[in-house]
Structures are given as C-alpha cells and as structure tokens.
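Q: What residues go here?
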C-alpha cells in the first residue's frame, strides 16, 4: 500500500507539474493567438479601406463603356523635359513624339517666342499626344478670330508658334497701321492665316 501511495503521490506531483506547465503554455499561446489575431484584423482593415478608396476614385472600369475625358488624361500626363546643350525643339519633339515636325507644339505649350533659341537647363512641359494633336489642329487653321487684347505678335505665336511672323499676318490681311507704326486690329475681326 505504501508503494501505491508513493506512486499516487508521484503521479499527483507530475500531474500538478504538467498542469502548471500546461497553463503557462496555454497563457503564452493565448497571448500569441491574440497578437496574431489583431495583426490579421488590422491587415484586413487596410485591405478593405484600400479597396473602397480605389473603387470610389475610379472614373470608369474596363468593359463598362465609361470613357475618361481628355482633360483627366491630360492631368495624369504631366511630363517635363530638361533641355541639354545642343538640343533643338525638333530634336526634342523627335525624342518625345517620334516626329521632328511637332516642334511647334512644344513652342506653343511653353510660350517660346523664338523657337530657334532655347537655353540649356530650361525645363519644357511636354503635352500628351492628345493635347499635341489639338495644338497642331489650331496651328493648321486658315482663319483666326481676334480676341480682346490680341496683338499680331500674340496671334502669330498662336498660329505659327513664332511671334516674329506677325508681318506675314499683317501683309495677308492688309492691316492698317497707327501713326506710331503699330498694326491696327480689332477684337471680333477674322484674320486669314496664310499657310
């Protein structure tokens, strides 16, 4: 009987040790589980927030027939080019558009008065192809309606991408001159643009 009691005591003692060990492990596991669960919840929350933000900001989805406007495409495409020594507008337009004849788009967009003269380290705005095509269309117009505040220099800048071509406009439209030598044009008048 003494042997049974000592065995029973040993078992009881071992059971008590296992119980203490198990409760320490269980406590450790519960904190670990709680920590991992919190991480999962936070990550899931970020994913849901990101999904909701992206869905609300989209203007159209592929396949639903909704098109984005040219204006929003223009805003997304803000490209700049830093002029290097030896660059010309035609060389830059060749690099950016693949066509050296689109130099006048760069001149108009960047309000370059003399397209033959650009300076190194100047930053030029390069409009997207859609906007460039609209500028080309304006540059190929054969008539222009004079706006309030326009001068022949400004109009030549708009239609030829070179303000110094204003005498061509003056001659083609038989423009009168003021006593001080400045050409006389009126808002609302339509000028012929020789090409």
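A:
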């Amino acid at each position: 009987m003494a042997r049974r009691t000592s065995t029973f005591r040993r078992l009881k003692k071992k059971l008590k040790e296992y119980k203490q060990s198990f409760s320490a492990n269980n406590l450790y596991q519960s904190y670990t589980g709680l920590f991992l669960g919190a991480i999962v919840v936070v990550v899931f929350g970020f994913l849901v927030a990101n999904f909701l933000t992206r869905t609300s900001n989209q203007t159209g989805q592929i396949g639903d027939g909704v098109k984005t406007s040219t204006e929003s495409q223009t805003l997304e495409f803000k490209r700049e080019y830093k002029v290097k020594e030896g660059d010309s507008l035609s060389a830059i337009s060749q690099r950016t558009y693949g066509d050296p004849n689109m130099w006048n788009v760069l001149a108009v967009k960047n309000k370059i008065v003399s397209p033959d003269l650009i300076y190194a380290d100047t930053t030029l705005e390069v409009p997207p192809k859609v906007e460039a095509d609209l500028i080309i269309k304006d540059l190929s117009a054969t008539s222009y309606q004079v706006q309030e505040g326009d001068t022949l220099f400004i109009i030549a800048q708009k239609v030829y991408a070179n303000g110094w071509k204003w005498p061509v406009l003056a001659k083609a439209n038989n423009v009168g001159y003021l006593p001080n030598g400045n050409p006389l044009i009126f808002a609302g008048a339509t000028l012929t643009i020789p090409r």
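A: Context that may help when evaluating the design: The first strand starts at residue 79 and ends at 82. The two ends are 123 Å apart (CA to CA).
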